Amino acid sequence: ADVVASLALGARFTLVGRAYLYGLMAGGREGVDRAIAILSDQVRRTMQLLQVRTVEELNPSHVTQLTRFNRVDHPVRAVTERG
User: Fold this and answer.
1) Do the beta carbons of residue 34 and residue 76 sit within 8 Å?
2) Which residues contact residue 39 at a Cβ distance below 8 angstroms, ignoring those fewer than 6 apart?
3) What is the reported pLDDT for 8?
4) Mean pLDDT, residues 8-16 taken together
5) 16-32 average pLDDT score
6) Residue-by-residue DSSP string for 1-62
């Protein structure tokens, strides 16, 4: 879903290195092939759920940006101020 969200927000490409490394460590060449297949299936499934057929159809309206999980600069102060 992160790859699709990035593309919907205007990225021309994305980098997904860790998944390939995990595949390589777990199963060599076959593990890398499996990681690629998993990522491809995830992108395809996400696009189907969004009811788009091509990457060109993706746009920012397909992404919901959550604001309630904003970063807290000082977690202890934030917890004590809430009560």
Assistant:
1) no
2) 3, 16, 19
3) 97
4) 94
5) 92
6) -HHHHHHHTT-S----HHHHHHHHHHHHHHHHHHHHHHHHHHHHHHHHHTT-SSGGG--GGG
Span 38-62, mean pLDDT?
97
Q: What is the pTM of this model?
A: 0.72
Q: What percent of the chain has a predicted confidence (pLDDT) above 70? A: 81
Give the separation between CA 57 and CA 75, rounded to whole angstroms.
Answer: 40
Domain ranges of the chain: 2-82
Contact 3, 50 (CB under 8 A): no
Q: In 3-state terms, what secondary structure has residue 68?
A: coil
Q: State both tokens at 45.
A: 């499934």
Token readout for 35 is 């990681």
Q: What gap in Å lies between CA 17 and CA 35, rounded to an integer?
A: 10
Structure tokens at 75: 């977690």
Q: What is the pLDDT of residue 65?
A: 79
